[in-house]
Amino acid sequence: MRIFVTGGTGLLGNNILRLLTESSHELVSFVRSHPHDNESIKAVFEGIETSFAHGDLGDAAFVDQAISQCDAVIHSAGMIHLGWTKLDEAMSVNRDVTRVIVDACIKHKVPLVHIGTVDTLAVGSRKQVADEETPLDHAGGQIECTYVTSKRAGVQEVLNGVERTLQCVIVHPGFMLGPWDWKPSSGRMIVEVSKAWRPIAPSGGASVCDSRDVAAGTISAMQHLMNGSIPNGRQYILAGENWTYFELWRNFAKRNSQRGPIMPAGPAQRWIAQMYGDMASKFSGTENDINSAAVKMSSQFHWHSSKRAHDELGYRIRDPHESIEASIQWLSEHGYLAR
Q1: Which of 25, 39, 76, 253 could bridge 7 with an S-S bond, Cβ 3.0-4.6 Å?
Q2: Contact 138, 130 (CB under 8 A)
Q3: What is the spatial distance between Cα 221 and Cα 315, in angstroms, rounded to a whole number?
Q4: Which residue has the higher pLDDT, 216 or 35?
Q5: Per-residue pLDDT tens for 71-96?
Q6: At what angle do helices 60-68 and 97-108 cross, to 10 degrees?
Q7: Helix (H) / strand (E) containing 74
Q8: DSSP codes of every residue in 242-255
Q9: Per-residue DSSP letters for 269-308?
Q10: Are strands 263-264 and 200-201 parallel, antiparallel or unpaired?
Q11: What is the pLDDT of residues 30-47, one digit of tens each?
């Protein structure tokens, strides 16, 4: 089977490609810069058996040509910005590119696996985790920042496609850790916590999962979609164990011989962080990683249940400690982290 994969330089996409390489599938990876012309991109795809489609995902003719020659598409590319700015750019990537891919998949009758995020679904709470059916306003609802808004718009394009005969499944990863985090994405949190003492951790929590397990769950979703054993347009949470950020940061720090946080942020600390971040962004002209949207999101409990994926896809999760150690080891080996 010939599979077109976007987002192959990202944490999940790279793990998907590596897992698919172990099978007999023929892979086509989308790249903006061809690996032959870019040493850093070449390193990202080392060990992966794939051909490359070099172009622009916003180019409908390019996407149409690439998908017309494939039997399935896994769309993992996306833009992550946890803030209030860059909405137009994020919409272009997360919504408009998705629409182009959906159109090509419908035209050529090619099944689509769309990678969403739990941040497009309901947020959980300390008392009740969220699943695929939890009302969106549960526990106050998601923070309608650039990332949430644009990714929800992308998911809606896929659901609109279902009404137009698109064959698809949507998977929503939780907070992923693991190897092959080239940018890095989630691993950046480990790097930052390991650089210096962070006395105060975010007050919320996340559903910690392994990028290798999410990759396996994504491939399982594709297989179940193509053999007709799940409903078309079905959505699945691929998450893990629900931890507070305080627990997570203390674990990161301990494994890197760093002093861990002493407390989660309280209302006063959160207010100060929001005001400082937004004021600094205003004066610099560029939104900082610390801003009111990011602080508010990190104060929520993004705790989710993966029971549907467990029951219907055979999704399994490993101990988060194993994922943390694998992530730290990979980051260390590739120069992101000193140990």
Answers
A1: 76
A2: yes
A3: 9
A4: 216
A5: 999 999 999 999 999 999 999 999 99
A6: 40
A7: strand 72-75
A8: EEEHHHHHHHHHHH
A9: HHHHHHHHHHHHHHHHSS--SSSHHHHHHHTSEE-B--HH
A10: parallel
A11: 998 776 777 778 899 999
Confidence check: pLDDT of 285 > 70: yes
Domains of the chain: 2-178+208-241+304-320 (3.40.50.720)
- CB neighbours of residue 225 within 10 Å: 22
| Residues 247, 255 contacting (CB under 8 angstroms) | no
Place of tokens 């919320």: 204
Tell me which long-range contacts 29-37 makes (C-beta under 8 A, separation of at least 24): 29/5, 29/53, 30/4, 30/5, 30/6, 30/55, 30/57, 30/66, 30/77, 32/56
Q: To the nearest 10°, report the CA torsion of 112, 117, 121, 124.
A: 150
Q: Are 14 and 182 in contact (CB under 8 A)?
A: yes
Answer whether 174's CB lies under 8 Å from 302's CB: yes
| Per-residue pLDDT, 339 | 62
What mean pLDDT is reported for the chain?
96
